[in-house]
Amino acid sequence: MSGVLNKRQGRQSVLFDEPPYVKAAGNAAGKKEMEGPLGELFDYCDEDPYFGQNTWEKAESFLQEKALETALLKARLRSEDIGYLVAGDLLGQLIATSFGVEKFEIPFFGVYGACSTMGESMSLAAMMIEGGYADTAAALSSSHFASAEKQFRYPLDYGCQRPASATWTVTGSGCVILSKEECLLNNMSRALGANPVKVMGMTTGKIVDYGIKDSMNMGACMAAAAANVIEANLKDLNREPDHYDRIVTGDLGYVGADILKDMLNEKGINLNNHMDCGIEIYDNVRQDTHSGGSGCGCSALVLTAYLLPKLALGEFKRILFIPTGALLSPVSFNEGNTVPAIAHGIMIERC
After folding, report:
1. For residues 21 and 146, which has the higher predicted lDDT (pLDDT)?
2. CA geometry: angle at 150 spanning 147 and 154, to 5°?
3. Phi/psi zone of residue 295: left (φ > 0), alpha (ψ -120 to 50 degrees), beta?
4. Pick among 2.120.10.30, 3.40.47.40, 3.20.20.70, 3.40.50.150: CATH of 2-179
5. Residue 115 per-residue DSSP state
């Protein structure tokens, strides 16, 4: 019991005694994402929004299959080498995930944290390895613009006007394979100056309800949850924001990022090193996504294609990665409920 208490830091955070390593990362993205500023970094892209399938949901399943397949290939592992797979998506009963990963036959935990799912899945996968329950584990998440719009908002043919606060759901999937053994990310050569990358710990978020009912303003709904995780992480570990090279939120977009900074300023926390995946993934002038990107695939793509390589190659030494999620459903929205939110923080560091 004492070992568990030593790992627990404060109310919401954990530091690992033996941090798991990031062995490989893979991703797959859509046309709009390919045309954005990070497009050349993605492993797989396709201009066909259906990805050769006959429904939006099957297209999203294909994205998950491709991301996991690519990560396994980079890690030089077979599916039977993975102890556990922790994965999820935005669709009801996680259908994109269950149909996307079934052929791999990996012991599976399906999780739902809305757009925070990549943070939740990585947290649980890392705990499994550090706890001695697996030598390797994979974390995976996805979203698709059309499948999300179909479930949560309006039929695409309806042509609904989108307010300036609206974000664009990312079509993409990202997978991270964690390992007990020290390893280089994606088999990068040390000759390139790459170093191993580790998951040092996590700060688990609480459900926070800011009282907003507008499903077109996800950034405002999720900002308070992100603020809670940042404040808890700094307090639990007695750190200042500049301990991290970047504090990276998942998909607050322009509106939510401004609200987050205002909230933290009121608490005396000044974020000069903030980055938001929803802002990074699109060129908002050229691509007109209003407030930016969102969806489970947003933070998953930016993490696997952009952040992890920068850590491995030394451009960043440590980051606090905080995917954010709005916990609404078509039922809760139609019944007039507010939109509670969650965020999960992962501390990732270059060795």
Report:
1. 21
2. 145
3. left
4. 3.40.47.40
5. B
